[in-house]
Specification:
It is built from 9 helices and 11 strands. By secondary structure, the chain is an alpha/beta fold.
C-alpha cells in the first residue's frame, strides 16, 4: 500500500559537479505555499537521515519521523532518473572555467556565444526554468563569496560609462589602474605573475575615486555596498586570501591601507 512520506511533491531537478573537486550537489524542488521552491544542497546531506533534517528550516517537508524514508526516496529517485536529470558543472571561483571555454563574471557565464545569465540566487529561490541554466555555475563556499560574486555585474550603458571616464583619463594613475583592472583575465593566458598596483599619496587626492573607476569596469564601484567589486583594507590576511581565491582571474581592489588593523598584512 502506498504511503505518504512527505507532505508535498519533491523532485531532484539538477545535479551539479564541481570542476576542481568533483563534489556533487543536488537541486531539489518541492511545492511550498502553493508554488515550487528550489534549494541546492550537498549530496552528502541527502544521504544522511540526521543531516537531511537541517533542510526543514528552509521549508523542506521532512521531520524526524520521516527522515529515513526521505533519504531512501531521494536515493531511489536519483537512481531511477539518473540518465535524465540535467547535469551542470560548478565552480567555487570566478574567472576562467571549463578549460578556458567560459569565464564566470559574477553569476554570468561568458562564452564565445551569447552571454548566459543566471540571475537567481544560489541556494533557495523561486521556481525558475532550469533549461537555460549555464553549463558552468558559480558555487560560493560562503555567504561572503556570494557577496563578492554579486558585486560583478553590468548596469547602465557602455556609452554612459565611457562619457564619465574619458574626462579623467588625462591622469596617468587613473589610466594605469584601468589597464591593471581590465588586464586581470589575460594574466593566466599570458602565464605571467599577478602584479600588485599600489596608489600612494596624501589624503583627498582622488585615490579612492581612481579605484572606483577601475572597479566600475567590472561591477558595482561602491565600496560601502556589501555587494561591490571593490572593498577596503579592513580585513584579515585570511579574508584577503579567501577573496583572492574567489575572484581568481578578476581584480581584487582594496581601498585605504590605513583601515587595516594588522600592518603586516599590507606588507605581505
Amino acid at each position: 500500500t502506498p504511503s505518504i512520506i512527505m507532505s508535498a511533491p519533491v523532485v531532484i531537478t539538477r545535479r551539479l559537479i564541481g570542476i576542481a573537486d568533483e563534489k556533487e550537489l543536488m537541486e531539489l524542488a518541492w511545492v511550498h505555499d502553493g508554488k515550487w521552491k528550489r534549494l541546492v544542497v550537498d549530496r552528502g546531506i541527502l544521504a544522511n537521515k540526521n543531516k537531511i533534517l537541517e533542510l526543514a528550516s528552509s521549508g523542506f517537508p521532512v521531520n524526524s519521523n520521516t527522515a529515513g524514508q526521505a533519504v531512501q526516496f531521494l536515493s531511489d529517485f536519483e537512481r531511477a532518473n539518473r540518465d535524465v536529470i540535467p547535469r551542470t558543472k560548478s565552480s567555487s571561483s570566478l574567472g576562467w572555467v571549463d578549460e578556458k571555454n567560459g569565464f564566470l563574471w559574477g553569476r554570468e557565464l561568458i562564452t564565445s556565444g551569447a552571454p548566459n545569465r543566471r540571475t537567481r540566487g544560489w541556494g533557495a529561490s523561486a521556481a525558475a526554468d532550469t533549461s537555460s541554466a549555464p553549463s558552468v555555475e558559480f558555487r560560493p563556499l560562503s555567504d561572503g563569496d556570494d557577496q563578492i560574486a554579486q558585486g560583478f555585474h553590468s548596469r547602465g550603458t557602455f556609452d554612459a560609462w565611457r562619457a564619465a571616464v574619458i574626462p579623467i583619463l588625462e591622469h596617468d594613475p587613473v589610466r594605469l589602474l584601468i589597464l591593471a583592472s581590465v588586464s586581470a583575465p589575460l594574466l593566466e593566458i599570458l602565464d605571467v605573475p599577478n602584479p600588485i598596483v599600489e596608489l600612494c599619496g596624501d589624503t583627498s587626492r582622488g585615490k579612492t575615486i581612481a579605484l572606483r573607476v577601475a572597479a566600475s569596469c567590472w561591477g558595482c564601484p561602491n565600496e560601502k555596498s556589501p555587494r561591490s567589486a571593490m572593498s577596503t583594507w579592513d580585513v584579515t590576511r585570511v579574508g584577503v586570501e579567501q577573496s583572492l581565491a574567489t575572484v581568481n582571474n578578476l581584480p581584487l581592489i582594496l581601498d585605504d591601507t590605513q583601515r587595516c588593523k594588522w600592518r603586516d598584512v599590507v606588507k605581505q
